[in-house]
Design brief:
Shape: globular
Strand order of the largest sheet: 1-2-3-7-6-5-4
Mean pLDDT: 80
Radius of gyration: 16 Å
Number of helices: 5
Distance between the termini: 38 Å
Largest sheet: 7 strands, antiparallel
Helix content: 25-40%
Order of helices and strands: HHHEEEHEEEEH
Length: 210
């Protein structure tokens, strides 16, 4: 039912975003209805482009619900990387969601989901770096599959090392990767990743003036 809800949420997104968009960076659309990301209050103001707490991006206590795992079986750790001025990257935060083990869950310390977020100087820099990564995937034989994602740009990679969804919106890029031992069937990986991205993107978009 959760996976069906993810597909429903995506369909509602496409319907909501069919109207003309204003120039510049448009607002993140809302996704009401069954299976859509629950409505939340605005993220707290921050001095950085990206959230520094991965539990703000995707709460670890909710990730089991999204992936069909028993409650209380996932923890998250975050890693802040150094800037990369040569490509215009100001910030990068990696969120690793790992299993705590137990009945119905992967073995303890198994990485089940990785969310890599980056903040850039300009939207152009973010798009350029995303294209570099797309070219690298293509050269390794992993095809890019564009995914309709409203005002954002999204690409799905059916990588045998773990399916990946990459989203670019304004100055932010985010990749969502399921590991090869993921609890989600291969044919359902894309809608599940889309659902995760819909939940995380409103938090990842930088605050006005950041």
């Amino acid at each position: 039912m959760a996976l069906a809800g993810a597909v429903s949420g995506l369909a509602l997104l496409l319907s909501a975003c069919s109207s003309s968009l204003p120039s510049g960076t448009p607002p993140i659309p809302t996704f009401p209805g069954p299976g859509a990301a629950p409505a939340t209050s605005a993220p707290p103001p921050r001095n950085s482009i990206l959230p520094t707490d991965c539990d703000q991006v995707l709460p670890s206590e909710q990730v089991p619900n999204y992936l069909g795992l028993p409650l209380g079986t996932v923890r998250v750790t975050d890693l802040r990387d150094v800037p990369a001025p040569s490509v215009g990257r100001l910030e990068r935060v990696t969120c690793n969601y790992t299993s705590l083990g137990g009945p119905g869950a992967p073995p303890s310390d198994t990485l089940i989901l990785k969310v890599l977020t980056s903040g850039y100087t300009t939207p152009q820099a973010a798009t350029a770096q995303s294209q570099v990564n797309r070219d690298a995937q293509a050269s390794s034989g992993v095809p890019a599959q564009p995914v309709p994602f409203g005002a954002a740009e999204a690409v799905f990679y059916p990588d045998p090392e773990g399916p990946v969804l990459v989203v670019v919106y304004g100055r932010v890029t985010a990749s969502f990767t399921l590991t090869p031992d993921r609890p989600v069937p291969e044919e359902q990986a894309q809608p599940v990743l889309v659902d995760l991205a819909l939940r995380a993107l409103p938090v990842l978009v930088p605050q006005a003036g950041s």
